[in-house]
């Protein structure tokens, strides 16, 4: 029987981190011919992931430009992918999550009548503008896809509630697969400042912030809250690898430069990030991926957003939705820094997002869907 030609498409840092273990899984199976196309919606932040996981994409659209708009990203991806699909006609295109690359990848495949598999399907806030534009990107891909790889049962239920009943698999999130390969005991960081931090004696707070719906006043208020927390807690060290977006860079440096216990550093590669998180006291973030990783490492998270499409860890009690109000963020951070009981209540390891076997289930799910096996993968028990 011919091999199944599966093309994986991604463009940003989080997609690459979460697709890398899947590409490896597909490459290791004789039933697949695995091809990889990157849009490079992110350039440096993508390349760092490709290096770490030693991935060599066959196609690179190299679309990134400074301060790019959503329309530029989508149109450049659509045009570039059309050519790629005409050159190689995959049996299946796999896209991940909710970025502009994801949506354009699914749409470009649909225009060529190529089947689409959606990895990390079914997450929803129900609010069209939050996360923006991700909520609609993810929802639109659900209309276009034939296969839906849902991390959790709740994600599957979201799709069923929208009338999607075929091609659904509950697999766990591939980020937990990635996490199992990156965190090690005696890790040496490339940044001296990270090696010299006293992780036992000081309260290391890991911070990230980049979402488009937080641009403007919400981001100003978040940064102002972080400055206050650092000044009020000289026993804490805030480590903030700043996203390369010029909007984020400008806002972070304006508020946080010159505060002694705040370390604004360049984006970390994924191994550094996971190992730093494993050594931190607390995570404050608006990132989706960090909300999934930190619970697995037993680290409390304050989410710097109004809502989350990842409610599982909130329900498990290790993640709190802090919102974007300056005073509320300060109040919640104070509580975790000052009240050991409140901290202990949140600092336990839970794994609602995966068990490290998501990629295996996705590969098995593809074979099942294409009639290459009659054994459906066991669902992840979330
Ligand atoms: C994108 C995704 C978002 C995801 C985030 C992860 C969309 C609409 N948004 O948002 O869902 O959470 O990635 O980080 O797809 N830049 C560089 N070098 C890089 C990466 C970015 O210089 O390696 C700068 C560029 O000026 C670029 C800007 O950052 O224009 C913003 O990047 P973009 O991909 O447009 O949006 P993100 O905010 O990163
Ligand atoms: N990450 C990283 N270096 C950083 C910041 C984040 O490797 O400096 C990783 C993080 O561990 C997670 C992913 O990038 O796996 C999340 O990406 P991001 O926050 O950019 O996007 P989101 O998850 O919000 O879409």
How is this structure best described in words?
- The chain has a seven-stranded parallel β-sheet, sandwiched between helices. Strands 10-9-8-11-12-13 form a six-stranded parallel β-sheet, sandwiched between helices.
- Helix 1 (13-28) packs across helix 7 (174-182), helix 4 (100-111) packs parallel to helix 5 (134-144) and helix 9 (217-232) packs parallel to helix 14.
- The radius of gyration is 20 Å and the shape is globular.
- Helices cover 45% and strands 15% of the residues.
- With 382 residues, it is an alpha/beta fold.
- The mean pLDDT is 97.
- It has 16 helices and 13 strands.
- It folds into two domains: 4-173 and 354-369, Glycogen Phosphorylase B (Rossmann fold), CATH 3.40.50.2000; 192-347, Rossmann fold.
- It binds uridine-diphosphate-N-acetylglucosamine and uridine-5'-diphosphate (UDP).
- The site of uridine-5'-diphosphate (UDP) has 17 residues, from helix 1, helix 11 and helix 12.
